[in-house]
TrEMBL record:
Pfam families: YfmQ. This is YfmQ family protein. It comes from the Bacteria.
Length: 145
């Protein structure tokens, strides 16, 4: 009986330590699973502007800048800015098995992102010095060249 009690205490103690401080890869997986601003990968992403696809170095450069952008604010359902009248940069990507469409509006002081997936939508704002300083940033139009 004493042996089983000691084994039970060891198992419970180990479980408590693992749950209180999980390994880094477990935390990264959990955070990425529920992140609003997920990272884009070059293989599963297509980027279009006015029907024209970004390819090669332009695509890689934009994806790197987008991934490095800092999440700034999430818009509530009734708080979505109405200034997004320019031409968006449309990003089609996959998150697991789910298709995700991002509409990106770049301005001189922030970047607005509208995310559509599984009949759901979310809107949020990013900060990125490199994206915000692109040509024509400031009026919602975006030409990356």
């Amino acid at each position: 009986m004493t042996t089983w009690f000691i084994i039970f205490l060891i198992v419970i103690s180990t479980l408590k330590v693992v749950l209180a401080s999980p390994p880094t890869f477990v935390m990264e997986w959990l955070l990425n699973k529920f992140a609003l601003h997920a990272r884009l990968s070059e293989e599963t992403t297509t980027i279009t502007l006015r029907g024209k696809r970004l390819e090669g170095e332009e695509k890689i450069q934009f994806i790197n800048q987008f991934n490095e952008a800092t999440f700034f604010d999430r818009y509530d359902e009734y708080d979505v800015p109405s200034e997004n009248t320019g031409t968006p940069l449309v990003i089609d990507t996959k998150k697991g098995k789910m298709d995700v469409r991002l509409s990106v509006y770049i301005y001189s002081n922030h970047v607005d992102v509208f995310k559509q997936y599984n009949k759901k939508a979310a809107a949020y704002s990013l900060r990125s010095e490199t994206l915000q300083s692109t040509p024509l940033a400031g009026n919602g139009n975006f030409i990356y060249s």
